[in-house]
Amino acid sequence: MQNLLVVGILDALFRWLHVLFGVIWIGHLYFFNFVNAGFAATMDGDTKKKVVPELMPRALYWFRWGAAWTYLFGILLLVLLFYHQKAALSDITTSFGAPAIIMILLTMVAAPFIYDALQKSGIGKNPRVFGAVTFVLVALITLLLVYWAKFSYRGFNIHIGAMFGTIMAFNVWFRIWPSQKKIITAIKEGTPPDPGLVALAGGRSRHNTYMSVPLLWTMINFHTTAFSGGNLRLTTETAWIALLVIILIGWHMVWQIYKKAAKVKGF
To answer: Which helix (DSSP H) or strand (DSSP E) does residue 141 occupy?
Structure first.
């Protein structure tokens, strides 16, 4: 009983902080992509030289540290609920076997490096091809989580979300922030920033925006089994279909929001 109380208290605290820092992180992500991108295009060189060195370091501070703390408390929640209490497994009376451990390492450790390599390859040069390939890979990983690693409905949902979150945090700290430091410095000095760095930072930020919407679904969907257990004719073993459909819907929603953001003008 005492152990359950401690787990309950930690669960509440970790979840609260995870959501708090997540709002800070994703809020800035959406500001950069849906607000600042359009605004920055209206500034001339002198205005950029004055505004960017003052605005962007402040915003990027909260952006990157929001990402770091969101990720930390997300990992703590995974360990507490899905590993310690075995909520990741469809049968909590069993132990984590080799397939489950391999899939955890794939989603939580290897995924950012696979994504990064794909993005740097020829596949990454075409956004549509890259999107199609990554969707197929996400579908394959989901199937492996369900049928090979024997993850529960909540287990495979949260690990796909955690995989997106891991890639997003990787992008923030190792691709976006290093590029932005050089871009801001160049603007401050009155020299044109490297177009390659601008494309890299902007591209990875857009990828994070697309991943964020399905990620938010997996966080919320942890609390419900409406899309499994026989509902909508989806059994525990076929509920992955709903997740893949939601990912596609989420990506389409982001695309529509980008279109709308481009039409919003100032006075």
So the answer is: helix 127-143
Q: Cα dihedral sign for 169, 173, 174, 179? A: positive
Task: Compute CA distances 24 → 7, 62, 70, 128, 258, whole Å.
Answer: 26, 7, 9, 30, 20
Place of tokens 């950069």: 32
Low-confidence stretches of the chain (pLDDT beneath 50): none
Quote the pTM value.
0.96
d(CA 182, CA 193): 7
Other beta carbons within 10 Å of 192: 10
Q: HSE of 139 in the Cβ direction (CA atoms, 13 Å)?
A: 14
Count of domains observed in the chain: 1
Written as six digits, the tokens of 99 are 């397939």
Structural domain range at position 55: 2-263
